[in-house]
Amino acid sequence: MADVTDAKHIGHGVVDGVECDHLAFRSAELDWQLWVEIGARPIPRKYVITSKHVAGAPQYTLRIKEWKTDATAGPDAFAFKPPADAKKVEIVAMVDIDEVPAGVVLGAKK
Description:
Layout: E1 6-15, E2 18-26, E3 30-37, E4 44-51, E5 59-63
Antiparallel strand pairs: 1-2, 2-3, 3-4, 4-5
């Protein structure tokens, strides 16, 4: 939220049959929207993220249909437990992991 320059409550909407509050946020790099279930379970139901500085302003959508949680789960339930044969890879060794392929100049005309 530190980079958010504007935030608005858009109104109500329905996501997969569930009434939600629709919220919208802006930042320099991206815009994002969030739909949160109204009522006793205020859980996120949908996110839409729009990349503003990539040609075509691609949108990424995440819909959450069902939350399955164990009320007794503690913080260890979310701890990363790698497989025994996993190998650590330094981020600098990874190539072409950005959403913009190498060699592409943002904003350049074809």
